[in-house]
Amino acid sequence: MTTKRIVIISAGLSTPSSTRQLADRMTADAVSIMRERGVEVEAQVFELRDLAHDITNHLLLGFAPPKLQEALDAVATADGLIAVTPIFSTSYAGLFKSFIDVIDPQALTDLPVLIGATGGTSRHSLAIDYAIRPLFTYLHAIPVTTGVFAATSDWGNGGDGVRSLPDRIFRGAKEFAELVERTDRSDLVSDPFALDRPVGHLVGGFTGE
User: Percentages helix, strand, coil for the chain, rounded to the nearest 5?
Assistant: First the structure.
């Protein structure tokens, strides 16, 4: 059975958090769909609130403490990413953007991404397409077509109608699962100490031939 690794990052600031709740529901649907298709899934969740001090220190000092490095390594080697942020002042949270800023610029290349966002009213839903999606596209990730926005009024919806939150979550999760299943990023994980030329070129041009 094929095994895929997905990483979930939640930028909610409160406990409990509607952002984490949305991330959990998106993850549950994506994992369920992949397993139904015969794909085993390993899911790892990171609450950015718990990494806030480490992220700030990395921005200031240029190195990642162990817990933050674990999250960065997990993203770099993942087969898919579920990224969920609250919307503040019409855009993603500063903590969310700060985490993206400390990721290696090449780490998101060809990475399938399911985007989620939460906010007080549905008028903030466009932030997914004018703020969050361009961010991941710029970093050469592959955001799926459906982004999932959850306003306060969406919680407790019974699921009636094609525009309900459960339906949007399922649609996005299905697109994500299908993309993760057919995406192979194994050739992007390389040894940072590997040489792209024979070592003889570094010692007087000797090639061993």
Answer: 45, 20, 35
What integer pLDDT is reported at residue 201 of this predicted model? Answer: 37
Rounded Cα gap, residues 89 and 92, in angstroms = 8
Q: What's the first-to-final CA gap in the chain, in angstroms?
A: 43
Write down the pLDDT at residue 65: 95
| Cα–Cα dist 4/183, whole Å | 10
Instruction: Report the SS3 class of residue 151.
Output: strand
* Topology adopted by domain 2-202: Rossmann fold (3.40.50)
CA distance 51 to 10: 11
Q: What is the predicted pLDDT for the residue at 1?
A: 63
Nearest residue to 170 (alpha-carbon basis) of 46, 32, 35: 32
Structure tokens at 142: 């592959």
- Bridge partner residues of 5 (DSSP): 42
Residue 81: CA count within 13 A, CB half-sphere: 29
The pTM assigned to this predicted structure is 0.86
Query: Who's near 173: CB < 8 A, 6+ residues apart?
Result: 26, 29, 30, 33, 114
Q: Rounded to whole angstroms, how far apart are CA atoms 30 and 182?
A: 14
Tell me the pLDDT tens digit for each residue of 128-155.
Answer: 999 999 999 999 999 999 999 999 888 8
Q: Rounded to whole angstroms, how far apart are CA atoms 126 and 123?
A: 7
- Residue 50 tokens, joined: 């718990």
Angle at the Cα of 41 from the Cα atoms of 36 and 45, rounded to 5 degrees: 130
